Amino acid sequence: MKRVVIASNNPGKLRELSSLLDTLGLEAIAQSGFGITEAAEPHGTFIENALAKARHAAALTKLPAIADDSGLCVHALAGDPGVQSACYAGTEGDRAARDARNNAKLVAELAGVPDRSAYYYCVLVLVRFAEDPCPVFGDGLWHGEIVLEARGTRGFGYDAHFLLPVVGRTAAELFNEEKNRVSHRARAMAALAARLNELQPAED
Question: What pLDDT is stored for residue 201 in this prediction?
């Protein structure tokens, strides 16, 4: 397996996943290169949505596919935005407009709330073919807290409001190389790579 289709049209995810897959020696291809649109994400869990997206891309390309489903979970909001992170404030408009509304809603929900601890969660699913009976999974958590004032211009989604207390910076203030070493997506990729290594046939 040398080529893998990324089952996403999100520019931020594509950039990060392509970089992470490159470290595994895999050539990443965006599903948009095959004219594939985003798959439906009707499920209530990250893992079910990721699996659905991976199978969708693999079925249409006849290639191995990897999908990410991820989001921000805030303790004071009972885990919201969670699986609805991308459309927390609705589905209208382009990605930038949705991100702006999502962040505005998050800040409004947490105004006056003393505990703003949160975590990013990511699950990655790799299928070698559409009906692969043994998908490969990896997941990762990235703990932080929400700040009400946006800080930083890098990243995407909720990154400008996701503070890492240990370093005193938000995810949007990290350089790409820094983020790709410590993020939920990086941790999920490391877990998936370890699982792939376990599945390799033992040498005599």
Answer: 61
Q: What residues does each domain of the chain span?
A: 3-199
Single out the residue of 126, 107, 105, 112 nearest to residue 188, CA to CA.
Answer: 126
Query: In which band, very low, low, confident or very high, does the pLDDT at 158 lie, cut at 50, 70 and 90?
Result: very high
Model pTM score: 0.90
Topology at the third CATH level for domain 3-199? Maf protein (3.90.950)
Tell me, what amino acid is at 200?
Q
* DSSP conformation letters of the chain: --EEEE----HHHHHHHHHHHHTTT-EEEEGGGGTPPPPP---SSHHHHHHHHHHHHHHHHSS-EEEEEEEEEEGGGTT-BGGGGGGTT-S-S-HHHHHHHHHHHHHHHHTT-S--EEEEEEEEEEESSTT-SS-EEEEEEEEEEE-SS---SSS-TTGGGEEETTTTEEGGGS-HHHHHHHSHHHHHHHHHHHHHHHHSPPP-
Predicted local distance difference test score (pLDDT) of residue 86: 93
Question: What is the DSSP track for 97-115?
Answer: HHHHHHHHHHHHHHTT-S-
Active site residues: 69
Question: In this structure, are residues 96 and 86 in contact, taking their beta carbons and an 8 Å threshold?
Answer: no
- Rg (Cα) of the chain, in Å, rounded? 17
